[in-house]
């Protein structure tokens, strides 16, 4: 739970302090790279750490990742400009990829399937705690301490984690030499980096550059598949993809990741731009999503010992669809309260649905592949978030450019309260109508994505639960 908390709080606490950090270091144009550098390297390393912990044990691999994370955190506090901060965030991300994946795999090792669902529900509660505590603690640090403590505050927790694991965690590892698939690791990292870089920077890159990056990512992925068929111990074991549970769970994880970004990235724009509420209301909407997801996970974790994976995820999908429909019905007259409620219901549905898939996928394989499937599930969500952000952003920008001349720049004025007041009603009306219509396209697509998650849940194997052994195919 502590490892998951450190992983979850990292982004929220840094995001709160970033205006202060930029004020100290300068180079506002590099602002987004502080997040992109961490998330890119984290995403690249998630599947690699998952596979390595199947080879060498959970604790050893977690310690390696935590070493990168701790050293990167220390150096971030000593950054002298934005470029150095970004470099050290890369080091942090190299370790951050191990935190959630390896700790979640540890939990599946410690507890039998019947108990695993309940404990994964407790793990989910740490994300809710981080969502609430992170912004508050970040604000407290910049108000009373120096901004460096934003990166150093996790260090005592990391020391405590090591002490606790050394005292309590024992694992039996079959000591043998492994043929590390170095080429597969490089190709996997390259394919992931090219894809995520193209998607996360799509708004800034030329169309030709994006095409080249995406084509290169596809080529790297094809070469990866060829390599994995040849490798004796592949980094991406292809046999796990023969399991219907693994395939459906990863499809669901990617789809939910896309839905998450539709809310996270574009609901605040509706609240501040179309409804005209302040940043506080937008923040409450995101907090509702962040709190509801682990709450749903906790509820599902408590219920999984009594119902099947399929029934649990299907019931969660009903809530997920209702939340998506509620968000698509959002209008300025319904106000921010409706938006916050829709965000909460959507997050609750995500948590309820996600837990059945997650526990199911961990129960579908043996110990030596559990790290691989756990990391694949997390990796699929990261890819879904990246793809969703890029596609939704393109849809919104295209819709605005068709309806309003200079749409993007005018919308920026609408989102800034001071500039918004400088626009007349005649100017403001068409902009708000165009922005509302563009964002509603995203929320309508979210209904389709929620229905798609229901399809993935419906086709899960029947009759399988934490009390029954899940077949390998």
In whole angstroms, the N-to-C terminal distance is: 31 Å
Number of helices: 17
**Bulk shape:** globular
Q: What's the total count of β strands? A: 0
- Name the CATH superfamily classification of the largest domain: MFS general substrate transporter like domains
User: Given the helix and strand composition, which structural class is it?
Assistant: mainly alpha
Helix content: over 70%
CATH level-two architecture of the largest domain: Up-down Bundle
- In percent, how much strand structure appears in the residues? under 5%
Secondary-structure element sequence? HHHHHHHHHHHHHHHHH
Low-confidence stretches: none
Mean pLDDT: 82
How many strands, what sense, and barrel or not for the largest sheet?
none
Q: In words, what does this structure look like?
A:
- With 473 residues, the chain is mainly alpha-helical.
- It has 3 domains: 1-174, MFS general substrate transporter like domains (Growth Hormone, Chain: A); 179-232; 240-466, MFS general substrate transporter like domains (Growth Hormone, Chain: A, Up-down Bundle).
- Helix content is 80%, strand content 0%.
- It has helices spanning 2-25, 33-56, 58-77, 82-110, 113-144, 149-152, 155-168, 182-200, 207-230, 244-275, 279-303, 309-328, 335-363, 367-403, 407-415, 417-420, 425-458.
- Helix 1 (2-25) packs antiparallel against helix 4 and helix 10 packs parallel to helix 14.
- It is globular.
- 51% of the residues are buried.
């Amino acid at each position: 739970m502590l490892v998951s908390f450190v992983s979850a709080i990292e982004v929220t606490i840094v995001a709160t302090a970033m205006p202060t950090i930029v004020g100290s270091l300068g180079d506002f144009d590099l602002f987004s790279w502080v997040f992109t550098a961490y998330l890119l390297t984290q995403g690249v390393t998630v599947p690699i750490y998952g596979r390595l912990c199947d080879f060498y044990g959970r604790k050893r691999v977690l310690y390696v990742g935590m070493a990168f994370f701790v050293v990167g955190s220390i150096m971030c506090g000593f950054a002298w400009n934005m470029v150095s901060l970004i470099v050290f965030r890369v080091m942090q991300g190299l370790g951050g990829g191990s935190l959630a994946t390896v700790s979640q795999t540890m939990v599946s090792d410690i507890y039998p399937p019947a108990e695993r669902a309940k404990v994964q529900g407790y793990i989910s509660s740490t994300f809710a705690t981080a969502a609430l505590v992170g912004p508050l603690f970040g604000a407290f640090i910049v108000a009373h301490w120096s901004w460096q403590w934003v990166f150093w505050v996790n260090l005592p927790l990391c020391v405590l984690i090591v002490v606790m694991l050394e005292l309590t965690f024992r694992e039996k590892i079959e000591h043998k030499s492994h043929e590390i698939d170095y080429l597969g690791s490089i190709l996997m990292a390259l394919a992931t980096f090219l894809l995520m870089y193209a998607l996360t920077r799509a708004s800034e890159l030329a169309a030709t550059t994006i095409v080249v990056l995406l084509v290169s990512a596809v080529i790297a992925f094809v070469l990866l598949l060829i390599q994995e068929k040849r490798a004796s111990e592949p980094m991406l074991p292809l046999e796990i993809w023969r399991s219907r549970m693994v395939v459906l769970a990863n499809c669901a994880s990617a789809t939910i990741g896309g839905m998450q970004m539709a809310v996270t990235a574009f609901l605040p724009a509706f609240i501040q731009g179309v409804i005209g509420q302040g940043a506080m209301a937008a923040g409450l909407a995101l907090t509702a999503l962040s709190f509801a997801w682990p709450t749903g996970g906790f509820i599902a974790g408590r219920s999984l010992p009594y119902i099947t994976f399929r029934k649990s995820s299907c019931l969660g999908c009903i809530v997920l669809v209702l939340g998506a429909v509620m968000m698509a019905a959002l209008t300025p007259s319904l106000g921010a309260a409706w938006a916050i409620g829709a965000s909460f219901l959507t997050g609750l549905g995500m948590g309820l649905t996600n837990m059945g898939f997650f526990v199911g996928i961990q129960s579908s394989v043996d110990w030596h592949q559990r790290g691989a499937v756990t990391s694949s599930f997390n990796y699929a969500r990261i890819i879904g978030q990246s793809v969703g952000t890029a596609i939704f952003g393109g849809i919104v920008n295209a819709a605005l450019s068709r309806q309003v001349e200079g749409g993007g720049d005018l919308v920026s004025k609408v989102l800034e309260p001071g500039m918004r007041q400088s626009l007349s009603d005649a100017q403001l009306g068409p902009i708000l109508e165009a922005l509302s219509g563009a964002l509603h396209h995203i929320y309508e697509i979210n209904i389709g994505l929620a229905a798609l998650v229901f399809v993935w849940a419906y086709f899960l194997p029947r009759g399988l639960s934490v009390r029954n052994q899940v077949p390998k195919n």
